[in-house]
Structures are given as structure tokens and as C-alpha cells.
# Entry
Amino acid sequence: MAQDCIFCKIGAGAIPSTMLYKDETCFVIRDIHPKAPTHLLVIPRRHFTALTGAQATDDGMLGHLLAVASKVAKQEGVADSGYRLVVNQGENSGQEVPHLHVHLLAGRKLAVMG
# Structure
């Protein structure tokens, strides 16, 4: 846990938050500045700053984040209508919290990227 990381503090219970899902590897919360009607964050419990720092030993954790996103999309009722998963990597991407996390965006037709 990084002492100054807001996501680490939420995961440890030091900052109250409603968790929509939690297990020993990750937890899911609603984004406080949603960009879509459904905007969730899938956050690993272990402090992990950037995807570029991933090693082969992290494959299980990274795959688990995607599996949990799928599970929570079903739980929230957006799996059938569609959703987008986004990982922002670094300052130029718009990453605001230096702790790897997956955004799940849904609830309306999202603009085509490209």
C-alpha cells in the first residue's frame, strides 16, 4: 500500500466508500466524476502504478480485473447493452490517480473511438 494513494486508502477502509464488489485481489467503486451514466472503477488492492510496469507474474491479477469487470457489468445490468473498458496509462492519457485501474463505462451509446 502506498501511504499517499487514495485508492490504497479506500481499499484498506481508511476512506469510506461503497464497494460494489470486493475480493482479495480487487474492489469496484463508482467513479466520483462519472463520464457515463454507469462509470465504475475496478481497482487492484496491491498498489500498482502503471500497466507498463506489469511482469509475467501479474498476468493473473490483470486477467482477474477484466473478469471482475464482466461480472460487475452483469450485476449492474449493462452487460447486454454494451460497455467500454478503459485503462489510462500515464499523464498524457488522462490518468489522474497513479494506481492502475480499469474504467467501466456504460448506460448510453458511447462515441466511436478512432
Observations:
- The domain at 6-100 is CATH 3.30.428.10 (HIT family, subunit A).
